[in-house]
């Protein structure tokens, strides 16, 4: 199940991305946050141990949706458009290592 | 408004409030006057490194005693202020820097300060978080880090509990000395009469000294700092370099606190501004030295107002011109660890006129 | 004449209005906005891949939205427009910009800040769960991503945009589980006569009526208790106006208690801010024509007090007009006579809205100790109260330094209002005395690997 639900404008070119290693079809124009939350219910895991987070304001204010890509880059999911081949990791906090 | 007091202290940084606490224990009446809030200047916004390593040799005996007091903070002021003895690593990025570190380790041995020298191999083995460019380091296990925002306020509360008077948002506008003692005027129009005056006014120490015709050259600088969002805790040790143009530590919540270079300031307005481009340069060094920082994000910059003396060591001691005037200012960017012992020294100077620690090198008329 | 370097921050109604005015007077400003598309929040343009008509997206505001988009297109032909560019810092007359890849700077002679506003929220247990979003976020998701934020959505808060957004969601075919407003029925009824005087007010009332007719549950005078769920939202529990506990199943909660100005850049630049008691807002001190206490900085729009897009448009032109006058360039407002009157009339409607949707101070101030207030640093209301009690202080930046509230990534944008209310109540002081979080650069986070200077 996912958090978000597409209800309009679904006729757009497909973009292949990877979320936690799983291949996903996003649509061109989706933000990374949209793509992730159409697939699941979590963008990251809170670094303070209070569980999963999925963003909050969706417009670049709350800073709660920073997500990490497979190769160590980080970006704000709600303001970053999806790009072909992006590989995102939602199972951890904002960086590559568990404490 | 009038006030009669044994000791008036100008400046509510750690030195001033630690001095107030100790003076109360000696039974003297004390009042501290602070233009802003306790610990709101350099004492509260500095890097938070608690280190003996790398100090001028004259500072080492004081630093050693201060280190003992840091252990006792919970008893002394009711909080450890997040002090942790996680060690301090000074990195050498060149052969010349490695030689400097070797020199210091010899000096440290004389002062019975334990230092371990590490070559590239053992450094990368012991501290795998470091990048390739560091060629060696000097490690001081008894050094560490603490939270600067908590220290002066905690000393302040302890001083108040012990009976000191603390006046915040009340700066001193003028002070005079005569045969009957000091007359101090504050910006709220209060007139304070004291036997002793302590000048612990940090980057404004030269101004206060100047009221008594003791002139020193003090340069105001603003160490440029920035902090990242929390990351998994991987860097226990506090890191610095010779020359202090780069330093980084990780808090136990995971933030990387990093500094290097200087911002700009307006001492008159007690304002200082960090410079973004200076932080940018420092962050390039950060990623080089701590590669995992490449996954972090910079969330804010800041700076503070620091007084630097020409020889980079503070002014501590009795005035040469006015009896009963004690100076303790100009900590040149490395006063945080010394705060607790300076409080003791102030108290000793006030009550005995002399100090058991060797403070002659810090005399105000040494220039 | 030397070309004045003017930068406008914000491509919403205020910024676009200012840009157009300057261009028509021969100035070539640079326009910067951190979003990928222009329009601000309310008229944010959808990405170019999206095809829905403005009528579908913006409803009865479609005409105005189209105007804004046309404005931008005209502006973009004439000047340097940098979308997706965040202004992260300002030092004297130098602006630092982050474009997603690196930090650059631009020097300027004059600056117009039209930085808009963001949602005011009030925390409650469970608000950090996946599935809780803001009102602004719900709008962005629907308008610019064609997505509903859930399958069964409950709207919670006190804001005219609450029923407005619920209505949009309904029209778009999403399931609206219900609307929970903290405002009491009596307050609504008291504000109704003034609301009905304005066409927008009448439209709003008719929207609410339509929602009720569609069978959407609407509860007034509620006290939200908690949001429940394990890894995401499952339900919301609240007390209704009779004090009875209710539980509504849902998979998304949209929260909105009004809006707050984004004035960090003005603060950082050194403009003086003051506390506007009537609206409980920190505003940039200005002369009523956009000039701030700094001779080279102007403000316009919701970034200087939330007044709505119509006021923002006028203020944008007004600020540009002031700038032109200050450069000794002849200028005239497009409707010279009546501008101030128009703004005043709009402010009456705004006051009516504030009375119909008052911010529930007590709800924020009385938050339970265990509730998380600062979601960036996970600081609870209890920790804030403790820091204030132990130190005896209440100035918000001092409390921040003691307990870390507001020290996280969002620089206190989300937790600031609630923290101020908690401190105000605890220490029996005023919001003005509590103060506001001081802005620090970068005003929003920048990945370190992009922040560093590239050789």
Automatic annotation (TrEMBL), chain A:
The keyword Ribonucleoprotein does not apply. Transmembrane segments: none annotated. GO terms for molecular function: iron-sulfur cluster binding; oxidoreductase activity. Keywords: Oxidoreductase. InterPro entries: 2Fe-2S-bd_N (IPR042204), 2Fe-2S_ferredoxin-like_sf (IPR036010). The keyword Secreted does not apply. This is 2Fe-2S ferredoxin-type domain-containing protein. It comes from marine metagenome.
């Amino acid at each position: 199940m996912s958090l978000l639900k597409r209800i309009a404008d679904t006729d757009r070119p497909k973009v292949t991305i990877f979320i936690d290693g799983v291949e996903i079809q996003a649509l061109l124009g989706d933000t990374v946050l949209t793509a992730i939350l159409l697939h699941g219910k979590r963008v990251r895991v809170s670094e303070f141990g209070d569980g999963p987070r999925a963003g909050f304001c969706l417009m670049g204010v709350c800073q709660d949706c920073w997500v990490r890509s497979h190769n160590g880059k980080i970006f704000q999911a709600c303001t970053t458009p999806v790009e072909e081949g992006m590989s995102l990791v939602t199972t951890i906090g904002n960086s590559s290592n568990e404490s | 408004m009038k006030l009669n007091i044994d000791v008036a202290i100008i400046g509510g940084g750690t030195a001033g409030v630690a001095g107030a606490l100790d003076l109360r224990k000696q039974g003297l009446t004390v009042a501290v006057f602070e233009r802003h809030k306790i610990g709101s200047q350099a004492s509260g916004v500095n890097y938070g490194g608690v280190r003996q390593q790398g100090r001028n040799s004259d500072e080492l005996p004081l630093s050693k005693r201060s280190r003992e007091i840091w252990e006792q903070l919970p008893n002394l002021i009711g909080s450890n202020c997040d002090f942790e003895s996680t060690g301090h690593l000074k990195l050498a990025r060149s052969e010349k820097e490695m030689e400097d570190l070797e020199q210091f380790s010899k000096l440290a041995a004389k002062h019975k300060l334990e230092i371990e020298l590490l070559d590239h191999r053992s450094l990368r083995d012991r501290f795998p978080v470091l990048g390739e460019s560091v060629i060696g380091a000097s490690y001081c296990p008894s050094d560490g880090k603490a939270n600067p925002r908590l220290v002066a306020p905690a000393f302040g509360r302890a001083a108040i509990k012990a009976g000191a008077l603390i006046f915040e948002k009340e700066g001193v506008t003028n002070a005079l000395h005569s045969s009957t003692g000091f007359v101090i005027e504050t910006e709220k129009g209060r007139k304070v009469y004291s036997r002793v005056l302590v000048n612990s006014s940090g980057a404004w120490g030269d101004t206060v000294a100047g009221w008594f015709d003791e002139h020193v050259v003090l340069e105001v600088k603003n160490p440029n700092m920035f902090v990242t969002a929390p990351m998994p805790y991987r860097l226990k040790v506090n890191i610095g370099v010779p020359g202090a143009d780069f330093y980084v530590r990780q808090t136990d919540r995971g933030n990387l606190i990093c500094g290097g270079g200087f911002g700009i300031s307006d001492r008159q307005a007690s304002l200082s501004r960090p410079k973004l481009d200076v932080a940018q340069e420092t962050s390039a060094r950060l990623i080089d030295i701590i590669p995992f920082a490449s996954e972090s994000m910079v969330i804010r910059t800041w700076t503070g107002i620091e007084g630097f003396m020409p020889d980079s060591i503070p002014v501590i001691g009795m005035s040469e011109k006015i009896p009963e005037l004690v100076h303790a200012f100009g900590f040149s960017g490395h006063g945080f660890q010394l705060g607790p012992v300076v409080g003791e020294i102030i108290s000793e100077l006030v009550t005995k006129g002399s100090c058991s620690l060797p403070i002659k090198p810090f005399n105000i008329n040494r220039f | 004449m030397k070309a004045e370097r003017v930068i406008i921050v914000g491509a919403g109604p205020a910024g676009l209005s200012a840009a157009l005015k300057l261009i028509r007077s021969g100035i070539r400003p640079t326009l910067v906005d951190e979003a990928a598309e222009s329009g601000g929040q309310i008229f944010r343009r959808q990405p170019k891949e999206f095809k829905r008509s403005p009528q579908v997206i913006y409803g009865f505001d479609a005409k105005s939205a189209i105007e804004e988009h046309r404005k931008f297109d005209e502006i973009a032909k004439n000047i340097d427009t940098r979308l997706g560019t965040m202004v992260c810092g300002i030092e004297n007359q130098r602006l630092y910009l982050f474009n997603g890849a690196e930090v650059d700077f631009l020097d300027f002679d004059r600056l117009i800040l039209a930085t808009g506003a963001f949602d005011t929220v009030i925390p409650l247990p469970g608000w950090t769960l996946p599935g809780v979003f803001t009102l602004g976020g719900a709008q962005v998701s629907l308008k610019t991503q064609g997505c509903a934020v859930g399958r069964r959505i409950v709207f919670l808060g006190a804001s005219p945009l609450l029923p407005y957004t619920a209505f949009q969601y309904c029209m778009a075919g999403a399931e609206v589980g219900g609307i929970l407003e903290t405002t009491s029925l009596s307050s609504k009824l008291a504000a109704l006569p003034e609301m009905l005087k304005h066409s927008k007010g009448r439209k709003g009332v008719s929207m609410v009526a339509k929602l009720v007719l569609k069978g959407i549950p609407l509860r007034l005078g509620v006290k939200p208790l908690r949001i429940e769920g394990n890894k995401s939202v499952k339900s919301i529990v609240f007390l209704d106006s009779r004090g009875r506990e209710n539980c509504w199943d849902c998979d998304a909660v949209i929260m909105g208690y009004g809006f707050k100005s984004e004035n960090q850049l003005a603060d950082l630049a050194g403009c003086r801010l003051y506390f506007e008691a009537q609206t409980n807002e920190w505003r940039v001190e200005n002369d009523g024509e956009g000039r701030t206490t700094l001779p080279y900085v102007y403000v316009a729009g919701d970034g200087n007090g939330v007044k709505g897009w119509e006021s923002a448009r006028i203020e944008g032109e007004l600020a540009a007009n002031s700038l032109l006058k200050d450069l000794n360039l002849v200028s005239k407002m497009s409707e010279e006579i009546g501008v101030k009157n128009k703004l005043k009339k709009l402010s009456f409607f705004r006051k009516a809205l504030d009375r119909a949707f008052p911010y529930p101070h007590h709800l924020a101030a009385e938050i339970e100790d265990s509730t998380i207030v600062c979601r960036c640093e996970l600081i609870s209301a209890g920790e804030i109260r403790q820091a204030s009690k132990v130190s005896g202080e209440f100035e918000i930046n001092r409390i921040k330094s003691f307990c870390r509230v507001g020290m996280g990534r969002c620089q206190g944008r989300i937790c600031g209002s609630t923290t101020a209310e908690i401190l105000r109540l605890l220490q029996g002081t005023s919001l003005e005395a509590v103060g506001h979080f001081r802005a620090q650069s970068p005003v929003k986070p920048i990945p370190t690997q992009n922040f560093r200077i590239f050789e």
